[in-house]
Amino acid sequence: MKAKISVIIPIYNHAHTLADSLRSIARQTYAPAEIIIIDDGSTDGLGQKISAIIKSSGLDPSLIKFSSQPNQGASQARNAGFAKSSSDLVIFWDADTIAHPEMLKKLRQALLASPKSAYAYCGYKFGCKSMPSFAFEADKLKKFNYIDTTSLIRRKDFTGFDPDLKRFQDWDLWLTLLAQNKTGVFVPKILYKKIVSKRAGISRWLPAFVYNMPFIKTKSVLQYQQARQALIKKHSLPNR
């Protein structure tokens, strides 16, 4: 049986970007078998807008499963989406992700061509910034995360996102898989971008050096530092 793909979209207050993101899924040269949207307690009227958003996307509405839950955070929303999915391959797709038309095709080809790999990942842009990405290297992954959440994962290898972590959920997943001797295969192309001008919901990004400046002690920086220490302890990482 051919390996099909489930696209899982956790969303929190991103009704304004969802239509563009869905349209980029509609343009994929390899179509997903299903698209699961988990509304994590949005307050921007997503529930009232979703029918019009889906209609404007160009997708077959029968492919889309939409459900809502009280706000629980990104990890719980992604795990809930996984529980509702059924395909052999899954990809967690933020609601402000705009993909190249061949993204799913290329990730799927790479993963199927590498049967020992648990997931396939690629380069991407955060707004106009190209994010660092590298071929898989275990030692490098233990120092910093260079693999984004939006990666194609074999269902049988997915261990779930840790709901106790408020940051680094993707890094934690890759490290958990690495501890099981499961690695990823890299597609050395930029195949998607995140819309940052309107970004406010499921996840966020700032340059790493901002979090390491001793004179910056904002709530966000303190949360970052606490989450990093928790991850270092959980996976016995070098503290640097």
Automatic annotation (TrEMBL):
Coiled coil: none annotated. Gene3D superfamilies: Spore Coat Polysaccharide Biosynthesis Protein SpsA, Chain A (3.90.550.10). Pfam families: Glycos_transf_2. Residues 6-130 form the Glycosyltransferase 2-like domain. This is Glycosyltransferase 2-like domain-containing protein. The lineage of its organism: Bacteria, Candidatus Magasanikiibacteriota.
